[in-house]
Amino acid sequence: MSNTSNQKRRRAERTRAFIEELIKRFPACFTADAKAVRPLAIGIEKELKKALAVDGDNAPPGWLIRQALARYTRSPAYLAAVMAGGDRIDLQGATVEPVSESAIEHARERRAEQKARAAERRRQKAEEAAEKRQQEKLQRLADHFNQ
């Protein structure tokens, strides 16, 4: 597991690059176009491992596949696709099964959590900016009266 921030950054970069590779290799399944994202079949990780195992020594490690799928399926576009319902697809883009109501509800909860975290980050940033402006104002006043 990555420990240092540099290791985490390299691992994240490798994951992003691997997702780009998946998009090129399985265009009917993975996409970078947020409007074209579709829910993936349950258990697609196994199917993906089999498809990538033909590369032999060049096959990606299991952690990279899991991390790429986690990153892809946690994206707002993917969660929106699940919330919209419809059908899940396999690596070839063929319909496998419909999205369940529990999956739709889970996606709604995840998306609400994401929005809440984003709102909290915006609030903290705004507070920090206001505090910084206040400190700068006080410093200008102090400089003005200390002349």
Whole-angstrom Rg: 22 Å
**N- and C-termini, Cα separation:** 56 Å
Tell me the overall shape: elongated
Q: Flag low-confidence runs.
A: none
Averaging pLDDT over every residue, what do you get? 92
> What is the number of helical segments per DSSP (H or I, 4+ residues)?
5
- Percentage of helical residues? 55-70%
How many strand segments? 2
Q: Classify the beta-strand content into a percent band.
A: under 5%
Overall SS class: mainly alpha
The H/E string reads HHHHEEH
Biggest beta sheet attributes: 2 strands, antiparallel
CATH class value of the largest domain: Mainly Alpha
Strand order of the largest sheet: 1-2
Q: CATH homologous superfamily of the largest domain, by name?
A: ProQ/FinO domain
- The CATH architecture of the largest domain can be named as Orthogonal Bundle
Tally of discrete structural domains: 2
CATH topology of the largest domain: Fertility Inhibition Protein O, Chain: A, Domain 1
Overview of the structural elements:
With 147 residues, the chain is mainly alpha-helical. It has 2 domains: 1-99, ProQ/FinO domain (Fertility Inhibition Protein O, Chain: A, Domain 1, Orthogonal Bundle); 104-147. 65% of the residues lie in helices and 5% in strands. The protein has 5 helices and 2 strands; from the N terminus they run H-H-H-H-E-E-H. It has helices at residues 5-25, 44-53, 62-73, 76-83, 101-145, and strands spanning 87-89, 95-98. A two-stranded antiparallel sheet has the order 1-2. Strand 1 (87-89) and strand 2 (95-98) form a beta hairpin. Helix 1 crosses helix 3 (62-73) and helix 4 packs antiparallel against helix 5 (101-145). The longest helix has 45 residues, at 101-145. The radius of gyration is 22 Å and the shape is elongated. The protein starts with a helix and ends with a helix.
